[in-house]
Design brief:
alpha/beta; 29 strands; globular
């Protein structure tokens, strides 16, 4: 694969570059001018003739570089040696791609994509073939895309579409919009004011709407908001809503491709938001990686609109009431959709980056998710005393869920805060202090990002100064910036024996970014955006992963790690 490169990832969706006679940014709409096709293998008298015809076709592109569609079906043509120096596309399906020996195509064309019917068929087919082809190849689904389903297709891993379906629909007066397809004659007024609508050219209008939708989908990938857009867009028709819900059940497929950090706000506006990778991953890490400070007292607090919570008016009031008692109390914030957020992790993604509609009403699914998460947490981490300063339906959910605590009624009024103070004074008698909060914060974040136990290794003998963690000699080990951990080389040396989040290279000393071809091994846990340690023969470095660990090993193009620091050792 030499002519396609993935540049940016937003879950399975990617921004990429297809290098033909012009560089095409994917996701894209491919036109007939962008490729030439060798046709069916059965049109040739022998495999040798098919090979010669394909090579001749590639050589004929002297004035430009087009995508060469190899002879198909691929399961019949797979033994034909196609050593051509040109972008190559392979027509295949799930049954044949798993047996295919031609694994170096730049583009895989899903045969009969236009016959996909229903949400389950779409999800099973796209995930099945995406898992079967190389990660740095493009997936093309002909005759399938419409303005309403395009975002879902791209979210599931499609890189290339065409305008065949909407153009053909136009000839039958099927009028496409972002909100679905309508029969032109049944519309009293046209919602579009383009010139094609004025002239009555429905096919041209449909193509224009598909092109406009594509531009918006690419912009969503750039901003890391495609999931939010898909959650809105699938409401067009029930089968697309079903498809998204079915896709969320494929947790491994989505999680392996979803970055651990985004720059913008994560909007949790629908019931599907509870099943987002970021939500499930956060709670999973809290339950499996996080270890709270040793404390007798747990304080359950409600979330706030402002993030991080500690900067909100309500949480500042809570802390003013706690006063010196705060050093005896461990705080856990209850919220939807993240369920449980330890105070030490309130500024990591997505705890400090989400927004959700606040009505005071908790539906049954939200209640079950929060209570089950809290129960799992309390089963693993025992407290002798629990105070719950919550109110309304959230309080009812905990009581109904059997969570035993001193319930103070919640609120931020003088009388309500006084009840909180009195409850804390009672439970904090003879309680153990929890120690240095900043050091506990570093440990919690290091465990969150590098796995359980990593925090103890890094903070051993260390102290905190500002946002930096220093060893006994004053050398920096790591820093916290907007909730993210950045390791120094000294910190990397400490964590190296754990062999977690490491990327191994051989045969060179990187001077800039580490490219995927140079990676020989990488931790399977690594996701885009993770802090990683780069290890080579005589080299140690730290930086941010640009792709998942499994993808670094399987890819032959693209930036694997953006190095921040490196040195020969």
């Amino acid at each position: 694969m030499r002519f396609f490169e993935v540049l940016r990832r937003d879950g399975p969706a990617r921004l990429g570059r297809l290098m033909l006679d012009r560089n095409i940014t994917t996701p894209c709409i491919l036109s007939s001018e962008d490729y030439v096709c060798a046709g069916s293998v059965f049109r040739y008298r022998s495999p040798q003739e098919a090979r010669e015809a394909t090579i001749s076709l590639a050589k004929s592109q002297r004035d430009g570089r087009k995508l060469i569609v190899l002879p198909y079906p691929s399961d019949v043509a797979q033994d034909i040696d196609m050593d051509i120096d040109a972008p190559r596309a392979l027509v295949t399906d799930i049954s044949s791609v798993k047996k295919d020996t031609q694994k170096d195509a730049d583009v895989y064309i899903l045969s009969a994509a236009g016959t996909i019917s229903g949400g389950r068929d779409l999800v099973d087919t796209l995930i099945g073939i995406r898992e079967s082809i190389p990660p740095d190849s493009a997936l093309y689904t002909p005759a399938l895309a419409t303005p309403s389903n395009l975002s879902l297709l791209v979210y599931l891993g499609v890189d290339i579409v065409d305008s065949v379906r909407v153009e053909m629909d136009g000839h039958y007066s099927r009028y496409h919009t972002r909100d679905g397809v309508f029969q032109r004659e049944e519309l009293s007024e046209l919602p579009c004011r383009c010139d094609h609508c004025s002239s009555g050219d429905v096919a041209a209008h449909n193509i224009l709407k598909l092109e406009e939708e594509l531009v918006w989908v690419r912009e969503c990938i750039r901003s890391g908001t495609l999931r939010e857009y898909v959650e809105r867009q699938v409401r067009c028709v029930p089968w697309m809503t079903a498809a998204l819900r079915l896709a969320d059940m494929q947790e491994r497929y989505l999680e392996r491709r979803t970055p651990t950090h985004r720059g913008g706000v994560m909007y949790a506006n629908t019931s599907e938001s509870l099943h987002r990778v970021e939500v499930r991953r956060f709670v999973s890490r809290v339950l499996t990686r996080y270890r709270p400070p040793e404390s007798d007292v747990l304080l359950l607090l409600p979330c706030s609109a402002r993030k991080p919570y500690s900067e909100s008016r309500s949480h500042r009031l809570f802390h003013s009431v706690m006063g010196s008692m705060r050093r005896f109390v461990h705080e856990l914030i209850l919220t939807s959709p993240l369920a449980i957020v330890p105070r030490e992790l309130e500024d990591v993604y997505p705890a400090a980056h989400y927004d959700t509609p606040v009505t005071g009403v908790w539906d049954l699914e939200e209640r079950a998710w929060l209570v089950s998460s809290l129960r799992s947490y309390l089963e693993k981490h025992r407290y002798t005393r629990i105070v719950a300063h919550i109110e309304g339906e959230l309080c009812d959910a905990l009581r109904d869920g059997g969570i035993e605590a001193v319930y103070t009624g919640g609120g931020t009024g003088p009388g309500e805060l006084e009840r909180l103070r009195e409850a804390l004074e009672f439970v904090c008698r003879d309680a153990r202090p929890i120690g240095n909060f900043r050091l506990q914060e570093f440990r919690a974040k290091i465990d969150f990002y590098f796995g359980s136990g990593a925090g103890d290794v890094l903070i051993q003998g260390a102290k905190v100064k500002g946002n930096r963690l220093l060893d006994p000699t004053g050398k920096a080990l790591a820093s916290i910036n907007s909730g993210r951990i950045a390791l120094t080389l000294e910190g990397a040396r400490r964590l190296l024996p754990l062999k977690a989040y490491t990327v191994r290279i051989v045969g060179f000393i990187p001077r800039g970014s580490v490219l995927a071809p140079g990676v020989v091994d990488a931790d399977e846990q690594i996701r885009p955006g993770d802090e990683v340690i780069v290890v080579g023969d005589g080299f140690l470095g730290t930086g941010r992963a640009r792709m998942s660990g499994w993808e670094m090993v399987a890819s032959r193009r693209g930036v694997a790690v953006e190095l921040r620091e490196g040195a020969e050792v």
